[in-house]
Known about the structure:
Blueprint lengths: L2 H9 L3 H18 L7 H29 L4 H11 L4 E2 L4 H21 L4 H9 L3 H16 L5 E7 L2 E7 L4 E2 L10
Helix pairs in contact: 1-7, 2-3, 3-5, 4-5
Amino acid sequence: MYTSAKTIVAxxxxxxxxxxxxxxxxxxxxxxxxxxxxxxxxIAEDICRLIEKKNKLVNLKVMARRALATLTDEEARxxxxxxxxxxxxxxxxxxxxxxxxxxxxxxxTHRLKMYGLSEADFVENYVSDIACIGAVYDAFALxxxxxxxxxxxxxxxxxxxxxxxxxRPNLTKNGVLGVPADA
Length: 183
């Protein structure tokens, strides 16, 4: 659920560096073409594929920036804490925290759809074409399949009724995604 949004949050900060890395590959392929004995058409096709990947990354970064900018500060901190491992501190029960994270992911997914990036489009254009994004996506998808419910309840009998004691992971993390509001 919301696998593409989770993936985008996790890789957002690295998209620029990934595009720069591909730019370096494009330049080295162009320079290498002078001494390479491969057919020119083959080299040109390789360079065109690299340019297409770079453009996809740049477009993804722009769409993600626009969608992330619509989140409130609290929603951004929630997602940063959950998917980037940034330090955040919230005084919510784990159940409330999970609901708020899911609401933020739903909002982000909706915004991404508004900008033309559905789950199916993300899988087709990014997951299947860009290996590192595919690896992150697959890790989230696998975690969703194997994950037990986030809230562990210890049922204790007290005064004729059950009382749920919620066990929480370490939630003392603070920080935000770093998305400028005007971007």
